[in-house]
Amino acid sequence: MATVNLTIDGKSIVADETKTVLEAALDNGIYIPHLCHHDDLHPNGGCRLCVVKQDGVDGVITSCSTKVKEGMVINTKDETAEKVRKLSCDLMFKTHPSECVGCPKYGKCQLASISQYVGDSGRDLRQQKLPLIENEENPLMLHEMYRCILCGRCVRACSELRGVGALKFEKVDGRMKVVINGNSLEEAGCQFCGACVEVCPTGSIRDKVGVFKDDPGLSREMKLVPCSEGCPAHINVPKYIRFIKEGNFPAAAATVREKAPFPESLGYICVHSCELQCKRNHLDGPLSIRNLKRFAASQDDGSWKAKAFQKDATGKTVAIIGAGPAGLTAGYYLKKLGHEVTIFEKLPKAGGQMRYGIPSYRLPREVLDREISEIEAIGVEIKCNSDIKSAAQLKAEGYDAVFVSVGTHAGNRLPLPGNDLENVYLNADFLRAINLDNPLPVGENVVVLGGGNVAIDCAQSAVRLGAKHVVMTCLEAPDKMTASDEEVTWAKEEGIIVENSRTFDAIESVDGKVTGLTVTGIEGLKFGPKGPEFTRIPDSTVTFPADTVIFAVGQHPDIDEEFGLELNRGRVVTTEGHKTSVAGIYAAGDVVTGTRSVIAAIAEAREAVCEIDRYLGGDGNIEENLAPEQLANPCIGKNEELTKTHRTEPSVNDADSRKCNFEPMDLGFDGCKAGCEASRCLQCDLRVQISPQKFWSDYAAEEGGQQ
Amino acid sequence: MKKLLVVSCVCDDKFAPISLYLMNNHLSDVVAGVNTKAKELDAEIMYLLPEGSQVDGMEGYVRYVDASSPTLNNPYAVVQVLSGNLPRPMIQDDFVAEYDNKEVVVITPEEAYAIQCGSEDKFVAVTADGETEIKKVSAGTSVAEIADVDGAKAILVGGSKGKFILPQDGENTKVEATESFNSIVVYKTSDCMVDACVQLMNQAYEASCGKCVLCREGTSQFKQIVTEMTTGKAKATDIDLIKEVSEIITVGAYCPFGQNMTKPLTSAMELFADEFADHIKKKTCKCGKCYKAATLYFIDPDECQGCGDCIDACPEEAIEGKDGFIHIIDQDLCEQCGKCVAACDEGCIKSATKLPKLPRKRTKVGKF
Q: What is the pTM of this model?
């Protein structure tokens, strides 16, 4: 590429001939104010802020739309140019609200920043404030156009970058305005990509409050892509959904695997925090991300293996206690980092809660077995039926590091009269026994105490073991239950009765045999520092007849002081970096946090692996690119039907056919449903491609410039 | 890339409707000029005509658009209009305006005519007494020869982008072969120059495409300030303000229209400084145009329900009143915008040149 020599503010500059004067100046640490210019948009030239003086040319030139030429002599601080800038700034502020402090964009407004730089001339021009019309009716986006200074970036972004054209200029009562190109954004074919928000220099077009997290600690990418941020492992959700849309299912599976070694299992049972964060929640309901993942993972062809890293052996040894999702994940990555890994598992098979907690009708065991065998295939040794009583002692046996991931395999027993009767079970024991092929006997009438997903698992399992009447009861009101809505619906379909807002008084018995559970209605439930607080409703005490009672009110680690680590309320205490009280012993997953989720355990195990690797002398880097590069086309075009499609529901076996066995009940998506659902994605990640807005102080800091 | 030669008949100055005149009266010459140019460029031809216009004998590819703008001699502005958007020019190095995968080149009928017939023949629109006549003159003819300027007060030469001259300068102002004016507007001694500028600034505000801040907001400011000169709100400092701002706009605006739209106003202020000063300081208009009993709005005290809708609608906060009390318009603050009339569901805001008897103090609805 040819270059040209020019002088800007006395500084000799060599610039590529394709650059504009503005770009050449900014590249060289010389700041020229500019507002309608945006790095990703075609030059416009309307704001008149970037005008500069060129020697030998009358008046001023527009630096954003003038190409550099050999021998050009430019003065950015020319008196006339500065006058033009000041006047432009003055004029813009005559229609823009003068009070900045109340504006949501305060502190992040490019107009305010530029006016500070350019300065105010104090001219007695007329205030021509625009009427204060707040148009909050749009989904996801807020149009407060009385702040608009008509730079036109939004209009250009919508048409140039996206090919949508949902915004346009129009003269309304003589005054130029940016308006929606139709009666509503939906009708205008808006795809809610947020490009307009991203480029708006003022507070005119903004994201609605609550669509994105306003957490200054989040990176721009995490803030703008809520599904990835919501996922504890930060799986690149939009990327794999786009692969699914393109029909490249193995690439989608590989994308998931970059952050988690159980793509398909997660596809069945993940708590899908991603879906809770999905921007489409604010439109017509979230994407069915978990089912998309499940379908893609079922189509995995193993092509990712060729790209997976495997470091040379380091000669270090690591012992892992507990082969649940955390332990298996840690083992997998530590082995890939070159360490010798041995996983000790108390139970007969690996899998932890994925095998001994989650029922097989939710997670088919062949899926789990297949994913565990991938981990064993790279040389991770799993020793089952190995009960480790003390982590400290294991470390002392000569392992370079120990990772504790024993989970929470002991159920909580509430202090109720009758809680130790025969046929009173704990969730963990009840579910584990089923998966050890030795289920605990259930009678005809089963009452489950608890309102979470585990309580649902217990209730549905009881149905499948032959119980005739199953009641679930919990403190929480229907909308406050921790179980997901979908699970509650399915449970009810199977005839399970959910009794909400009850406190448990006693387990009744006759001759040592359970006869029922007495509960009292409550209201005003709050969770204070000492546990739940509520008011008992008088005369609302009833007894649910029962011959079997199952506590599903939380679980705790099945370890004690003998384990050799500092514990708090039964959980292993860790400090930053997943370190326990003993050097070289790390812990993560439910054993540290209490019962959470498979994906959280995986995410924490990955973090712990980085720490352990650094402790063992490695660089702690486990990032890998297993999926092919993806070119996301930003030009998405109009879609007037966008809000007319709705969340695709999976095929689910009907209640009668599923409640008599432990076979999978949710059949997920087929390729057609997956493709259809994937096309609903709003592609939030496209917005990250847009260059972030810069302020004059950014250029100064970045280029070490003169400002 | 293929080229498309667009013959733009929609970029005329308000005062110089030359394009359609040429199309209707010299079509063969214009077409011949267009064809010559098209051959030179190897371009296809499109005629861009205002919606509703009719040119007899017109053949070829014609598009009618409901837009007219001084920027529509800019290829990008033309492309915008052809794509259904508002016209906005693009003035940039190496910029190629594309439409239908063709590079757009714009020519006006006047330019086409000049290609065919040479640039000695000029067309000038002369407006006097509200009548516009288009005259064919030769380069070198003076304003005084084209129009009857005897006894006129001022002559606007060059329309929206032109300037005012005094009649005695009519002999020295001549039509040039290139870069000339194509309109003359004769103002009579009974015409108020401030009022004339109000009209001109209103037109400039309407003509501004809105792309560039200086032109968009400049026309809006000038329109307001000059209007204030006719209602007694302007300040003595406004003269200098307009001069200073105009100078900057002339240098800094984006396109030729923006750069020149200040000239009619500044030239009028220069030539008729006393008249402007009278308006601002003495608040009088010798021509009797301004400061006339303007339409006054008032709230009929017998009908007002005291609902407050008009109070909310008034941008000047000129309406006083409380819930259940008869509302009153403060005539000193009222700008006669009429928004309250539209806001009142009861239709009790009325207009008159003289105010009827109205409550002087806060009065309950129905108690007047």
A: 0.86
